[in-house]
Design goal:
alpha/beta; TIM Barrel; three-stranded parallel beta sheet; 13% strand; globular; binds zinc ion
């Protein structure tokens, strides 16, 4: 296989405020770049040529770092415009703006580049929390306006696999072609019918946290892919891992309830392994064989990584 594309992966994630923590001041940017270059070279050996990093504006997006990794590794890396969901993202100044004002920001980045880097986003990131909040809806509408005006694809984050239908409603209201939208993080659910409904409206469905068994058992992901294939929607499945090369935050970036603190301390190494530790080739070395055993053959897997991303980004076929 050559020319495969991974539609939701990350080079670097940095949670809002983490750069203030003295515990993280020794963070090594050059080492992060070296690590990412190595990962890209390993992926190239598996036929991956495009690595879409839909890091939102407010999770440490660093287009110059991505450009350096792309230049050194030969990987095509696509960066994004768009804010994260309202629980963690959407900085105050933009929270009080209208959808139209937010769309103007996105379009400025798309047309002129991100700040003064000259680097243009190739995709619009959308994220909503569970449940979808009012600021989330406003920002999804803004993304829809920017998508209609620019023709760029939308890639979404659905917290707990909830809100994909709402995202589709808001995007459709703006006149967005739902066939150019990937409704993402659909692998934290038992309900395959929800995923089939997303595909039936023409969008791509992201089984895009492969390897995060802490969030969903891997068998469940396999069942969901199989259910989509059996329902005739193999051409709407996008596989990816939402896996990072580097996490800048020096401490775990999510609140852990006190009653789980001790157990979390014990499992933290395996959580970090799943977030950023293991190689990005896990999808090929570990997940693909399991998928094949469940009846989704190599040709179907390849097509999910070749043909589906190409159509998501507006290519023929
Ligand atoms: Zn992500």
């Amino acid at each position: 296989m050559s020319n495969a594309g991974l539609v939701h992966e990350h080079v670097l994630i940095s949670y809002p405020g983490d750069t203030l923590d003295p515990a993280g001041w020794s963070w090594d940017r050059a080492a992060c770049i070296d690590r990412a270059v190595e990962r890209m070279e390993q992926l190239r050996d598996h036929g991956v040529r495009t690595f879409v990093d839909p890091c939102p504006i407010d999770l440490g997006r660093d287009p110059e770092l991505l450009a350096e990794v792309a230049q050194r590794s030969g990987m095509q890396i696509v960066c994004a415009t768009g804010f994260y969901h309202e629980e963690i993202g959407i900085p105050w100044y933009w929270r009080v703006r209208t959808s139209e004002e937010i769309a103007e920001l996105y379009l400025h980045e798309i047309e002129h580049g991100i700040s003064d880097t000259g680097i243009k986003p190739g995709v619009i990131k959308i994220a909503t929390f569970d449940p979808v909040g009012e600021h989330d809806r406003k920002v999804v509408a803004a993304a829809g306006m920017a998508s209609v005006a620019s023709g760029l694809t939308c890639i979404t984050h659905c917290e707990n696999s909830v809100g994909g239908d709402v995202q589709q409603d808001v995007l459709a209201e703006q006149g967005v072609d739902l066939g150019r939208c990937l409704i993402g993080h659909q692998d934290h659910t038992d309900d395959a019918n929800k995923l089939i409904a997303i595909a039936e409206r023409g969008s791509f469905v992201g089984i895009d946290r492969v390897g995060y068994s802490i969030l969903t058992p891997e068998d469940r992901r396999v069942e969901l892919v199989k259910a989509l294939v059996d329902a005739g929607h193999a051409d709407r499945v996008c596989l990816s891992q939402d896996h990072m090369c580097c996490l800048r935050s020096p401490k775990f970036p999510y609140a852990v309830p006190p009653q789980f603190a001790e157990v979390y301390e014990q499992i933290l190494p395996s959580v970090y392994e799943q977030m950023h530790g293991r190689p990005h080739t896990y999808l090929f070395t570990d997940f693909q064989p399991v998928l094949e055993k469940a009846g989704v053959d190599r040709a179907a897997f390849d097509s999910m990584l070749l043909d589906n991303p190409r159509r998501l980004f507006g290519g023929a076929g």
